[in-house]
Automatic annotation (TrEMBL):
Protein name: inositol-phosphate phosphatase
Keywords: Hydrolase, Magnesium, Metal-binding
SUPFAM superfamilies (alphabetical): Carbohydrate phosphatase
Biological source species: Streptomyces tagetis
Cofactor(s) essential for the protein: Mg(2+)
UniProt-listed Enzyme Commission number(s): 3.1.3.25
Catalytic activity: a myo-inositol phosphate + H2O = myo-inositol + phosphate
InterPro entries noted in UniProt: Inositol_monoP_metal-BS, Inositol_monophosphatase-like, Inositol_monophosphatase_CS
Enzyme class, spelled out: hydrolase
GO process annotations (BP): inositol metabolic process; phosphatidylinositol phosphate biosynthetic process; signal transduction
GO molecular function, one term: metal ion binding
Residues at which Mg(2+) binds: E80, D103, D106, D228
Amino acid sequence: MIEDYETIDEFLTRHAGDVEEAVRKAAAQEIMPRWRRLADDEVDQKSGPHDLVTDADRQAELHLTEALRLLMPGSEVVGEEAVHDNPASYEAIRGDAPVWIVDPVDGTRQFVRGETGFCTLVALARHGTVLASWTYAPAQDRFATARRGRGAFLDGVRLHAGPPEPGRDLRVATSHPDYTTDDQKRALLGLRVPGVAPRPCGSAGLEYLDIALGRVDATAFSWEAAWDHAAGILLVEEAGGIHLARDGEPFRITGGNDLPFTTARDAATARQVAALLAGEPA
């Protein structure tokens, strides 16, 4: 049983590569053999036509759940599909045990359409703090990792997001309208000002990776599901970015955030986007 952060740090020193291998193996065995080969009966809707689940999601999550628990006895797993079946299992994020946060296929719509813009997300957290993350885009052969205080990397190359280029419109990926309340829709309208270029997001995990790479400047997301955000916000933090809710407080994976929230490649951009979401002048 993991007892404290120092022990988790030791675990990560020994086993971060084993976690990466588990993610790669889940993708190789459960996701990629189904990519562009899905039968109709392997795709279901959850809450609506934009909220899909496939056999790849289910089987990859089961694969990762078993592998990660074996790597760290006593840890919990919060996976998107398991929480859909048992919402109470989400509470493990707020518990005392280390918790693996898993999105087996982030960007399921893109996966179903046969596109390459999907990824597998795994984060390790405790007491609401994300300590390490793994982001794997198997169809693009890209693997990003982050470890708190140790940096963010894409295929072994360290990431530094840096500030946006002066004089260019801010590129901001935003929530799909289907996942916003009326209040959140009004908040997102605050981004429709000169100097900001909002657009609908794709896979959240890959949007975060593009922020860490400096290809996207910020996000404005209206939902809190930790499996979509935990891996990415650490990746961006370790590349030099920050995240802020609409009230100016950092985003909490345990919930209770003033939404929408933003994650941005630098502090000035995050403050600007958060202010616009709050209805304040840029």
